[in-house]
Description:
The structure holds two protein chains of two kinds. By secondary structure, chain A is mostly beta strands. Chain A contains four helices and 39 strands. In chain A, a hairpin with an 8-residue loop joins strand 29 and strand 30 (about 450-455). Residues about 1-30 of chain A have low confidence and may be disordered. Chain B is mainly α. Chain B has 22 helices and no strands. Chain B has helices at about 5-10, 30-45, 50-60, 65-80, 80-95, 100-110, 115-130, 135-145, 150-160, 165-180, 185-195, 200-215, 215-230, 235-245, 250-280, 285-295, 300-315, 320-330, 335-350, 355-365, 370-380, 385-395. In chain B, helix 18 packs antiparallel against helix 19. The N and C termini of chain B lie far apart (about 60 Å). Mean pLDDT of chain B is about 90; it is low at about 1-15. Classes of the chains: A mainly beta, B mainly alpha. At the A-B interface, strand 13 and strand 24 of A face helix 7, helix 12, helix 14 and helix 15 of B.
Amino acid sequence: MSPFPAGKITVLIAVTIFIACENKQPVSANTTQINFTDVTATAGLANFRHVTGAVGDKWFPESMGSGGGFIDYNGDGWSDILLVGGGVWPEKSAAVAPALFLYHNNQDGTFKNVTAAAGLADLHTYGFGITVADYDNDDDQDFFFTTIWQNHLFRNDGGIFTDVSLGSGLEKDLLWSTTAIFFDADQDGWVDLYVGSYVDWSPEKDIWCTLDGNTKNYCTPELYNGVPSRFYSNNGDGTFTDKTEQAGFLPAPGKMLGAAVLDFNNDGWPDLAVASDTQRDLLYVNNGNGTFKEIGAVSGMAYDENGRARAGMGIDAGVVDNSGKETIFVGNFSKEMISVFRHQSGDFFEDRAALSKIGRPSLMTLTFGLFLFDAELDGDLDLFTANGHVQIGIEHTQDGIYYREPSHLFLNDGDGHFADIVPSIGGPLAQPIVGRGAAYSDYDKNGTLDILVTENDGPVHLFRNDNNENNFLRVNVKSRASARVGLGTKLVGITKNKHMVRRVKTGSSFMSHSEQTVTFGLGSEEALDSLYVYWPNGSMEVFHNINSGQEINITEERGKSTVQ
Amino acid sequence: MRRLIPLLLFLYCCSSNEKQVVDVSYSSNLRTSRFLLQGSDALRQHNFIQALTLADSADKYATQKADVHFFKGRVYSELGRFAEADQAYKNALKAAPGYRGVWNNLGNNAYRQQNFSRAIDYYRQEITQNQAPIPLRALGRAFVELGKTDSARTYFQKAIDLDRNYAAAHFNLAQLEEDEGKLKQALQYAGRAYGIEPDNLEYRYVYSTLLVQMDRGSEAIYNLREIVKKWPWHHGAHYNLGRALVKAGQKTNGENYLEQAEQVRATQAKIDHLENTVRALPDDPYSYAALAFALRKVGRYNDAMHSYKVALYLEPDNFDIWNNVANLYLLQGDTITALATYNYIVYKNPTLTDIWLNMGVVHALSNQKEKARSAWEQVLTYQSDNAAALNYLKKLNGN
């Protein structure tokens, strides 16, 4: 029995499986060398460039950047790449910029631009974020795209996307949307959608801001009124209903930039942590029926230790130490630590930014994209952050702060203490960039998790993870009884020395989407001793002795799951 | 913590956090010294124009000019006019190359402009000539801002080695330890700072927040309540008090403070923005006046007065701002200076009926009925149908 049981276990089926695997030599995690290679050009992504449409007006959205990530659009099991191109201002430029770029994974380390073939070339807007899920339960990956105007829902029809926004119920809001997240809030088997909104901005409402008293620069969000985010319930027929108020998401301060699903109270119902820019961060606890109560301030995760709201951007949550408690990480502005809040008990969280050793090294950088993943496959979750400032030329007015910034890769010692290894390993992660979105996937299927980072007004970067010394197990889940892609499924992997808790989810990071496959780093272990699968519908299954070096698919059937 | 301190620094360049060296050590004659001491008094009261006028007077009689230049540097620093301040300090160095404190104050100016590398150079120059706790600690603070905490720790410790009772340096070490997650050590240092200066609310606050972070919030409740009373504008105190109360089981009470904290925080965010604006537009009196107004609204009267006085330095004949200054004196309980200020305004422009009206009210509240009557009658001289003046006079006459 797992020490971290789900709240409503109804079925327990023990299945022992033995699946052939590649032979790998055990290597001590302590000797693992972390190394990333920038393969952007060789992968065929060098021609991509995010555009802001900036022509000197310094309009606020131009500093935001956008996201991107991984999607398996053709269902071949290989991660393809979907990037947001940004946009231009119609009244300022006659040129048109593609809103989306889709790159097909050629399964040999390269990608091919298939935007037009996939039906995505004709959309022109000013875009920000993507989130991917099978919203219509037809066994393929659809996606939702946020913009400064109308958002778009794209249905996947055999690798061709159809814009089904009109009539979906999602097309009505014309607000500046940022990060969106699919999750099954009421656990009815159909994924719902939370769409983050930022501020009430338009060219007519643009405010003149300056750093030097003479020239206009980008404003900070304090000057604009926040717009509350929205929650849409999936009707199960391809449409959604706005239930923002009924589900308990109002009132809200707005200025939302990131959202992550967690289940901090282990009741089996998805809770939602929201990062807000210069407003308090929010924690929505699920009432056990798909409605929520906001407890951020009381829980202690809404502010820094002085009650000050920070510039929350990217966010993620996961179990990073032996406590078994979930910890929330939020990227913030320069001179603000990355937030680290670990669940304590009841509704309370404790601030561990300094204790985790993440706080101080993060003070000089401005973090957007942020996610937890097992970088060196040693069984614990590490933290990657994509950094970059919003003010061009900030180095001239603020000593020690730079517009282009290196990334952070905080390696976890297994007990929630981290060390940024980027200064010591150098390489592509140390290159200063204007980082924004960030996502991970094992795009080359070698077991290690690779990193995709977008830049504002710049290129995309694909950093291949060359650590292939440690063993791994990759798990895909599908569900027939719960939402098809198994969103919300909790997986607990146990080896002799490790107790790994993972969750199948969308969202997290900053306007980006990572793969939904769960990767267990096994270090030198040859097999996962036990794998506990906590399905969203409350049932639980356990599998034993799963050999490393493979990717398995677990499909939840009614009563008994199948493993391939 | 880190964000709180610069905020306070901006307005208090001479607070415990950024000690300006103010010695008048090279005074060349009695007359010069007298002018400079009067100037220092004026500066303390944020009367910048007066302070500079007195400096000019001192300059006239000074045989050794370094003191005068140094003093002018201080005035311009407080006005946030760093180019002029730096020039004045450099003039002091030209007049007396070993002048104590000049490099330190140049460092402070660079620090306030967020040019920490230059600040470090200046502080090092000061230390070369003057191995004193103040520049040593200042050097440590600049290193903190550049993320060089080992160097910072070294210099804080050196400052303490020279002066064991240097509370600010203990406080800085507490902040360093807190940022490293060493809460127990941080509490020890904060306790020392608080012990040395028990009236310092900032030290008391940090000591209390450390207790809250260490799950000893119930020990901090009394202190935090006291701080909230004295600093009702301080969102951190409200927030931590709320957290401590909730954790102590006083949920409703705690949640009330958390709600207040959010309101105070939102107000503070507006003040932060206004502070950024005056930093970007240092020649704009209206930006300073707007900041002053916001500070006055939350009860930070001394900070508000500072901003109003900077605004007046930039636009000396703006009677709206003068009126606000007089009103602020009233709020601070300084009726005499308020009346003197009103008198100054109507001396400059006797047609300002609002000022006469206010003077009348102040006199009436002081039971100076005839003076009140005289002031309100002045209103009618310029505006015979002024309803407020007529009403006040009617009340005064008992009708």
